[in-house]
Amino acid sequence: VGNYTVTAQLHGGANYEDRTLEANLQIRHALADLVFEDATFVYDGTAKQITVQNVPEGVTVTYQNNDKIAAGTYTVIAVVQGGNQYENTTLRATLKITKAAIENIQFEGQTFTYDGTAKYIFVSGSLPQGVTVEHSNNGKIEVGSYEVKATINGGNNYQSRELTAT
């Protein structure tokens, strides 16, 4: 890469004058065939990142706003230092982490025999960290059939949902 002066010396022989010609030769930085694509992941508690592909030897890449764990949409910036042969450039791509479904929980109806005390049903199973449950229409005493709602707030990383049981 650079600007060069090229000299050509022409020898005219017996019939022509000798001449010296000069020209400028310019070699520019190449554009690397880089690939930096958007990516979507499902939250699983581990860091997610996207990287530039097809990086030639001698080219370095540094990232800003990469290595994310929480669900969300992030703009990742890749700063490419082209070295001696390639152009410097800045690339952008979207890293998206979607909320995960809450697995392995149950909310089942139950039958109780009247004894004058309040009866409750609850969500069972293992709730992920940050997930909360609010039960409504629970704690009934009188004989009857009641629909209880469990409202599951998934927080930042899990999908919220509602469950009902009798």
Measured distance between first and last alpha carbons: 76 Å
Q: What integer is the average pLDDT?
A: 93
Q: Major β-sheet, in short?
A: 4 strands, mixed
Helix content: under 10%
Radius of gyration, Cα only, in angstroms?
34 Å
Number of E strands:
11
> How would you sum up the global shape?
rod-shaped
Determine the structural class based on helices, strands and strand pairing. mainly beta
How are strands sequenced across the largest beta sheet?
A: 3-6-5-4
Give me the number of helical elements. Answer: 0
| Helix/strand order, N-terminal first | EEEEEEEEEEE
- What percent strand? 35-45%
Low-confidence stretches: none
Q: What report would you give on this structure?
A:
The protein is rod-shaped, with a radius of gyration of 34 Å. The protein has 166 residues and is mainly beta. It has a four-stranded mixed β-sheet, with no helix packed on it. The N and C termini lie far apart (76 Å). The chain contains no helices and eleven strands.
Any chance you could write out the topology, listing elements then pairs?
Blueprint: E1 2-10, E2 19-27, E3 39-42, E4 60-64, E5 72-81, E6 89-98, E7 105-106, E8 124-125, E9 132-136, E10 148-153, E11 161-165
Parallel strand pairs: 3-6
Antiparallel strand pairs: 1-2, 4-5, 5-6, 7-8, 9-10, 10-11
